[in-house]
């Protein structure tokens, strides 16, 4: 049996696992980094998630600009616009390779890498596939998550795509893409493919797309429906392959219907990479959905083992896992910080774009909060008109009396960027709306919309 190699810190996962590894190395500690995809270091974000998908969406934005050029008096022969799908994917794939290679160089210069799957074989004892064994004073589990594949009969034969196969394997632009799941991934890919000329059908359980504030998801659903066919309140019963096409039989309120296209993309959520990790052998508990149980300091049920990122299933965002990684590292080394997701923002990079932080109006109601709400449209102010009065608005929820910002939601151009002054305001003592209301904003900018909606709650 191989001797046990000992480290101050072991990180499982070469995505956000790198955050704890970075802080440990900076503190002069010995660090082992365990990852099973050495050619995809940087994890989901760099290789299969945020960065490559936003690269694709950049191409979609260029197409939308071209399509709407006429609104600004720029006339193009639209019939001459040609999409080189391979070139679009090629750009993203080359950047991914370079990014992953750069992360790998850093990993190999800063830490001791262990490539391959690792699993626990005893208390804090990890064994690699090749038999090497290692342990750490502190262990960080950042093993991430992967696409959840729903148990629909016939799915395996349908040749379905996931976010991973779009990035790595897709060779031809689908003519008609069926997307199962109208959440983040479904709506971002619906934007990308439809902007590039693919006919897209999105199928989802719920009556509206995305899990946003009700006003935001209503407008989003209405706008996406102008470019994409929506089959909502639908239950997928069976996957089909017929005459070279694939698709689903779905049950809707109007009965059963068959939706066929040339490719099927699954975007039905994520499942944690905890199966096969042997966590029971080291006293780390999982919840009923397989996510690692942590306390508010991100410590697992083992005193020396911390977990963060998608594997704990709190808010599956890169910025959230980076925040958690730093906090977990410090807590593992003497700090007593509690995670605080009050001002944890998110964005949906679809069209219209969405940026959001804090509570939705429904959550404010459910929590019995006494609030004022204000809403202002892009079309109502100077820069909004300049950019073409796009559909969209900013919506603010402020607690009555205290002036505390409860939630802020934007849908429309640059929403993902524009929410950040509210994030900062929410992180100042008292989270008072007056921080934004009383700040001078450059005229004419989209940021003025943010200030104007704050003015309306004075
Ligand atoms: C299509 C898509 C788009 C996204 N877009 C955004 C976005 O725009 N903005 C945003 O904030 N977030 C986005 N996300 C979410 C974001 O990518 C994730 O929240 C984040 O990357 C999670 O990081 P992580 O470290 O928890 O997991 P990962 O990055 O998945 O890292 C886990 C690593 O651990 C490895 N591993 C797992 N088990 C083992 C084992 N037993 N042994 C060895 N190695 C193991 C995995 O192979 C992987 O490399 C997106 C996600 C997807 C899928
Ligand atoms: N911009 C971003 O930050 C970004 C982008 C992409 C992904 N992500 C992260 O990745 C995670 C996963 O994204 P996702 O879109 O796969 O999950 P999601 O939870 O956002 O959406 C899944 C959707 O699929 C639907 N669904 C699930 N099973 C279904 C079924 N059998 N039939 C019909 N509909 C079904 C659900 O109703 C839901 O609307 C997100 O939660 C998010 O944290 C973030």
UniProtKB/TrEMBL annotation:
Q: Name one GO molecular function term.
A: NAD(P)H dehydrogenase (quinone) activity
Q: Tell me its family.
A: Belongs to the class-I pyridine nucleotide-disulfide oxidoreductase family.
Keyword Nucleotide-binding in the entry? The reply is yes
Q: Which cofactor does it need?
A: FAD
What does the record say about how the cofactor binds?
Binds 1 FAD per subunit.
Residues annotated as binding NAD(+): 181-188, 269
Which keywords fit this entry according to its UniProt record?
Disulfide bond, FAD, Flavoprotein, NAD, NADP, Nucleotide-binding, Oxidoreductase, Redox-active center
Task: Output this protein's name.
Answer: Dihydrolipoamide dehydrogenase
PANTHER family xrefs: MERCURIC REDUCTASE, PYRIDINE NUCLEOTIDE-DISULFIDE OXIDOREDUCTASE RCLA-RELATED
Which organism does this sequence originate in?
A: Halomonas heilongjiangensis
